[in-house]
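Researcher: Final request for today, and then I'll write up notes for the group meeting. The sequence and the SMILES for magnesium ion follow.
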Amino acid sequence: MPRKRGGARSIAPVQLPANLFAQAEERREAARHVDWKFSLYPAQQEIEADAHRFKTVCNGRRWGKSFLASHAAVERANAEQGLVMLTAPTYKTAKNGVWAHLLNNLPAQYRAVHQSDMTVELTGGGRVLVGSLDQADNLRGAGTGLVGIIVDEAAFVPDYAVENVLRPMLMDCNGWLLAISTPKGRRGWFYRYWLRGQSGDVQDAAYRSWSMPTWTNPTLPNIEAEIDDLRNSMPENVFQQEIAAAFVDDVGQVFRDVQLCELAKRQVGKDGLPVPIPGADYYVGIDFARSGSDYTVITVLEKLDDGTLSLVWLDRWGRIPDEEPINRLARVILHFQPRRSIGEENSFGGVYMAWMASKYHIKVDLFNTTGQSKEPLVQQLAAAIEFHRLDLWPESDPLGKVLVNELLSYERQETAEGHATYSAPVGYHDDCVMSLCMAVRAAEGELGGDAVVGGHIEGSVEDWMLQRWEAPAVERGGVLVPGGARFGRRW
Ligand SMILES: Nc1ncnc2c1ncn2[C@@H]1O[C@H](COP(=O)(O)OP(=O)(O)O)[C@@H](O)[C@H]1O
Ligand SMILES: [Mg+2]
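Model: Predicted protein-magnesium ion complex:
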C-alpha cells in the first residue's frame, strides 16, 4: 500500500473569486488600447488600418517609417492576440532601429521587456519579437503564435530571407506581411512586392503598395527649406530615390547600404568634443580644402573590440586663414591621442601636416592620392560599409546628413580607356568621404601591409622632416617647416 506523503493533512481548496477571469480579461482588454506617446498622422493611419495581406510601403527618408513599424507591431499583436515579428536587415539596425523605437514610444505600463531576446510581452495580450534578417534562419523556430511580420528597411533585406524563411512561416499561419523601406533600385523582392501592390490584377488582390515622399511627413519642422537643402546636396537621381521615394535604375553608387550604418551618435562633452574613453583606440582621417569652395574635414573613428569602426567626431570648415586649420586639427588630435592619423598629401596637405608636426609634434601620415591609389582606398571604405563594420552618425544629425548625402552621391565612372574613376558628381562635395576613407585606412591599414604606428613623432622633428621630404627643415616665423624647393613657393 502506498504511503501517504506528509501525513493526512487535508488542504482547503482555494476559493477563487468567481469573476477572476473576467477581471483579468477586462484589464487586458483595457490595455489593448495603448495610449501612445505620439499618434500616427493620417497617411500612417491609413496604411496601418488597411486590411490587405501583403502591404509594401516605399517612402522617403524620415517619412516616419520606423515609427509606423513599431506602432503597427504593437497594435496588430494586441488586436490579434498573437506574435508579431518586427524585423530589420541586420542585428545592429534591429537593435538601434526598431527595438529602440519600440521602447521609446511604447509607454512602460503596456509592456514587459525581455532585453536578451528583444521581446516585448504586451499587457494587452500580444507579443512583439524584434529579429534581424542577416541570420534569418535563426527566426524559423520563433514562430509560435505568429500572426504577421513587419520588415523595416525592407529593400536592404536579401531575397533569401523573405522567400526561404519569412514566406514559409507566413504560409503556415496564414499571416500577413508589412514591408517598409526607402527604395533601392528596380530589383529584389521589395520591388516585386511593390509592383504587385500596384498591379490591380486579380491574382494580386492580396497585395497593396504605397509610395510617398519625405515631404508628406507633416511632423517635420521647416520641411520646405529642408527639402530645398537636400535637393542641393545630392544629384537628382539620388534625391529621387532617397527623398521622392522613386524606384530609379542603379544610380551608379559606390557605397551601398549606407542607410544601415547610421548607428552611432554624436556625444559632446563640456569643451564641445566628446570625452575620450581611456584606453580606446582612435584613428583620424583628414582631407584638406583644395579650393575656395572645398572644406577641410577631420574624422575620428573609434575601433571597438569586435572591429567595428564607430564615428566619434566629425568636423569641417571652409577656407580660413592659414594657421587656423592647423590649430583646429591639432586640438582634435591632441584631444583624442589617436593611434594613427592619415591626411591627404596632395595640394597643401603635406605642407599643413609638416606645419602641424613642427608646431605641435603631431605626426600625420600622408596619403598621396593618384588614379592608382584612390581605387583601393575607396574600395576599403565601401567594404567597411557593406560588411556593416562602420557605425556613422544618422542623417538627423546636421553633419551626419552631410556625410550620408556625400556617401550616397559618390560615383564610379569609367573613362574611355575603361579605367574606373571615383568622385563626387560635378558640383558636389566629397571632402567628408575622403576624410572618412583615410580614417578607415588609418584604422585598418592597407591590405597586406602598412602596420599601424603611433601618432607621435619620436626623436627630432627635423630628422623626421628630413626623412619625409628629403630636405633639411628650415625655421620660418618661429616654427620649423620643411625645406626644399618643393615647398619654397609657399613659405
Ligand atoms: N506620427 C508621428 N508623430 C510625431 N512625429 C513623427 C511621427 N512620425 C514620424 N515622426 C517624426 O519623424 C521623424 C522620422 O521618423 P522615422 O520613423 O525615424 O523615419 P524613417 O524611419 O522613415 O526614416 C521622427 O524622428 C519623428 O520626429
Ligand atoms: Mg527608419
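Model: Residues 65-80 form the longest helix (16 residues). Residues 449-454, 484-491 have pLDDT under 50 and may be disordered.
Researcher: Thanks, that's everything.
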